[in-house]
Design brief:
By secondary structure, this protein is mainly α. The chain has a single domain, classed as MetI-like fold. Helices cover 73% and strands 1% of the residues. It is built from 14 helices and two strands. The chain has a two-stranded antiparallel ribbon with strand order 1-2. α1 packs across α14, α3 packs antiparallel against α11 and α11 runs antiparallel to α14. The longest helix is centred in the N-terminal third of the chain and has 35 residues. The relative contact order is 0.13.
Amino acid sequence: MATQHSRMAARLMVAPSVGLLFVWMIVPLVTTIYFSFLIYNQLYPDRQGWAGFDNYYYFLTDRSFMEAIWNSIVLVGGVLIVTVIGGILLALLLNMPFWGQGIVRIMVIAPFFVMPTVSALVWKNMFMNPVNGMFAHIAKGLGLEPFDFLGHAPMASIIGIVSWEWLPFATLILLTALQSLDSEQQEAAEMDGAGRLSRFIYLTLPHLTRAITVVILIQTIFLLSIYAEIAVTTNGGPGTATTTITYQVALQSLYDNDVGGASAGGIVAVILANIVAVFVMRMIGKNLDA
């Protein structure tokens, strides 16, 4: 009976915060769904009315829609490849004993706490600027022509910037998993004559599988909503080279003032994000139960 009373008391204490969180999430979603069925453009207030599924039809049949989907896939896939591989290498390096290890770990993790807008501005102006950027000065010092990263390799540049932001997160998760590896297994394998590469492939990598799964799951969800880095650096260009679904919705809302069409695009983006999340969880989430 005491247990039943304690559970009821716990539920009553948690209920206000859960209710507030539910309202905070459900009200914007319901409002967005409502506006997605309206003709609602702030530039033409006299043309408002019921649109039905027209907003969804125009958004889904827009030529740039498939390009935005492809750009989103390339961006997410590229960042995941860089952060997972780079995170494993950095975790292995940081797990080795060396002087100043604590300071180096803090420096590696620090980029994760930089705001996306600030990070994009730093990379755009201090590193990738073809005139005054650091890479341009290095190229000139080597007698080479400076390369316009954002102009000639925009998607690769965005992937590099976002990867720099998320690499500390992957490194931290993988380093934590690496430190829980049983050292006796490593020593036994070394005594049996297994080399470093063999120990990594057959011992270390399988042990990191669950951590890699967590990194992929969390990053995929957040990377699908990347906006600030694109807005600050390329504005979705050149052309539509870096326009993702999230950025396309923002363009339709902020620049075209088409609230109805942008709301429909937002709902489509939410549905696609959930489909991707479920697909990823079904494909690799089984490792969490292993």
